Structures are given as C-alpha cells and as structure tokens.
Model the fold of this input.
Amino acid sequence: MVVLRRLTWAHDLLQQFKRQRHYWRNMDSSLLEPPASVRGMLELQRDAFKKPVQLPRLRVPETDSNKVLPLVKKLLLKMERLRPVRVLEKSNEDGDVAPMREILLHPLAVKSWDCLPTTELLKLKVEPSNFYYNELVLNYDNWRADEIFKSVLPAGDEGLTSYSRIGHIVHLNLRDHLLPYKTLIGQVLLDKVPGCRTVVNKAATIDNTYRNFQLELICGEAQYQVETKENGVLFEFDFSRVYWNPRLSTEHERITKMLNANDVLYDVFAGVGPFSVPAARKKCWVLANDLNPESFKWLQHNGKRNKCLTHMKTFNKDGRQFLLEDVKPDLLKRWKEKTTADYSIHITMNLPAMAVEFLDAFRGFLNEEEAKDFLNQQLNYPTVHVYCFAKGEDTKTLARALVEDNLGLSLTDNLEDINFVRNVAPNKDMYRVSFRLTNEILTTPIAKKTAEEIQRKRAASELEEDSNIANK
Ligand SMILES: C[S@@+](CC[C@H](N)C(=O)[O-])C[C@H]1O[C@@H](n2cnc3c(N)ncnc32)[C@H](O)[C@@H]1O
Done:
C-alpha cells in the first residue's frame, strides 16, 4: 500500500516537472527578487512583499539527508530566515511512513534533475522521482535590507549605497532624491540591522565648530548615547553632541600602530579619544585636548573606562592655546631632561577643514632664550600628523602644498609621509601629511610677508567655498 502510494506520488511529480521544465529554462534572475509592484513604495507595507515562487526540491529520507546534503551544499537556496532543509513527513505511530526531509534548491542553479550531481545521488538511491517543484511564498523577512532598497527605490538613480553604524545608531547621509523614502528606509533598517534602535540622517554639512553631525531622527528612539568598539577599544559618548566617524577607524589604527610604550602623543583635536585612548592604553604618555566641553567630558570618561588615565592628561581649550601652554612646556621639560631619542614624539592634528591653519604656531615656537639652551644639540623632534582636505586633480600634491603654504616653509627631508585617508566627495580627498619639526621651523618666526600671503590665500579659498555653496 505504502509502495503504491509512493509510486503514484512520484509519477505525479514527474508529470509536474515535465510540464514546468520549459518554464524553468526561461526563468530570469528576478525570480528571487521582491515583487516588481513594490517599486516606489513610500510607506512600508510588509505584506506587499509576499511572492509565490516555484522552487526545485529534493525529497530524501531523513536517514540519508546527512549524506545528500554535502553533495548539494553549493546548490542550496540561501535566503534570509529561510531554512533550506525542512522536515517533510514525520514517521507515524505505526512507523510505516519513513520520516522525510525536503531540501530547497536554488532555482537559478538547478533548472532540472540534470543540474544535480546525479551519479553520486543515484548511488544513495536518490532518483529523478525525488526531485520536484513546489510553491513557496517568499516574504519581507526573506530579503536583506539592501535587496529591499534595490526593489523599492527609484531604479535609474543612485540607491542607498552605504551607512555608518555607531553602537545602536545607524547614521545615513541621504541624497535629496531619497528623502521621500526616508521613513521607509528607517523602518527597514530598524527591522533588518541587528541591534539597531535608532536611525538618523545627516541634516546638514558639518560646518559647526565642534564638528558634530546635525542629526534628524527618522526612525526609532531619540537615544544618542552610544557604546561602540573601535579596534578593540570601547568608547562611550553622545553621538548628537560630539564628533565620531567610524570611517576613520583604519586611520586611527595606523597611528596607534606607529606608537610604542613610553612614546609621547600630543593630540590637539582629540574628540572623544580615538587616538589618545588607544595610545594611553599602550602606555604612551598622552596630552589630549578638545575645545568641545562635551567631547572633553567623554574623553575623560573613555580614559577612565579604559583604565588608562594614569597615562593621559586631558585639556579643554583651543588647539593653539594647548600647543603653546601645554605642549611646549612638556616638550621643553623632556628636551632638558634628555635630548637623545630613545622614544618618539607625535602630534596629531585631526581637524581636516582647518588644522593646517594652526601650523604657524610651530614657527618660532621657541623664543631666542629657549632656542639658545638647545643650540647645536640634536633634539628629539616631534612628528606632526596634520590632516587636511584637498580638492582638485592631483590631490596628493595639493595636500603637500597646503601644508607648506600654511607652514611658510617647504617640506624637504623632514617629510615622512603623505597618506591618503579617504575620499570625501568627488575630487575631494582627506590626507594625512606627516612631517618632522626642525630647528628651522621651531626657531624662525613666520615672516610678515609670508603671513600676509597665507591670509590672502585663506580668504580666497573661503570665498571660493562660499560661492560653491551659493551655486549649489
Ligand atoms: C574632526 S574631529 C576629530 C576628532 C578625533 N581626533 C577623531 O579622529 O575622530 C575634530 C575635533 O576638533 C575639535 N575642535 C574644533 N575646533 C577646535 C579648536 N579650535 N581647538 C581644539 N579642538 C577643536 C572638535 O570639537 C572635534 O572634536
């Protein structure tokens, strides 16, 4: 009886398979995409994503499924929240129905029985009659966020290419044409990004003094205090009130890797400590400064949480003041104690829109008296890592020129590196220019004429920026 039932079932399936074979040959890749009708959806309707599809399957006895699975592993249908192996029939109380498993196969890779490793399957007594098609209703849960966006957002325009993740916050920078979809985008991210509780969009360009992003809450809780790890170090801060950019993590790591225990770091625009805290954890001696009282608060907090405040002093003042009032005395003390270089000294200046304008602080850093103390001595000169934006054709050359212009001197063999950090806009890149301070820089004040020239160039570039904004 059981055998007869099986034979009839197999026969029916074979007929079904024959009828559909033609259809599967012509099947296109959109089969596994969300339904075309969701394109342009402004308000998320999860039910509208339901889509019935015919899927190829293998029906195998439960006892054999462990042997069959490795043979078809690469052909399994893998989608979000979809188990490719399911229990098909459980054994009944009498034990006369063998428990069966059903294996879902990828319809584009498996268009017929012949697409399977048939020789090996036949050896396991898995035959064409075990192969069949059946309907499955795909739904909203089965697609990733990027697949949902691709199907909903306007087809011709640039889609949602990336977002940043800071603790439980997803941070977007939506182009104008995507703004009508912002609520839907927020909801999908909240649904799909594990641990996400808040979705924000960048509301304006960061041109305020403290460089914190102006945010617009588009979905979830208005809760901006985050905990996040960068390169294994824990940071906590209020994302709406300080500067934090996860895209700088590689650069933070590069600098941290340059440092060894007992080295010195003066971090002029420290933010909440992505250079300073890892350096202090490495037992470098760190002076860290930020003008934003909120960054200063979290800088201290992060030093404390990472148990490295013994190696980190924090300051809350303007960068130039910090260089003259805190960095300079510390340097003088170190040089007086020991001029030989058995440790290195670094100065990080990460305020790319403006940091070069602080470089003239190093010109004539030492007055005549101080300079006399070190006459004819080889000092342990700090390496300055200054960040800048360069816009134009050859951005690397422009970055160097920007530093030289603002320093009022050419970089020669004291230039250590010009390092590309990231692209920020078309034709606009962020660079780190690393160079050693020299006797000439430290002892010769900037000439009046050069200072005037620097001012003139700055005013011209600000004018150009303003007219670019006005023309946008
Ligand atoms: C681009 S963020 C860099 C923060 C951190 N170093 C990083 O890499 O993520 C620049 C920081 O400089 C601070 N800042 C802005 N103007 C400043 C000034 N004149 N003096 C000191 N800090 C300043 C801002 O508050 C901000 O935290």
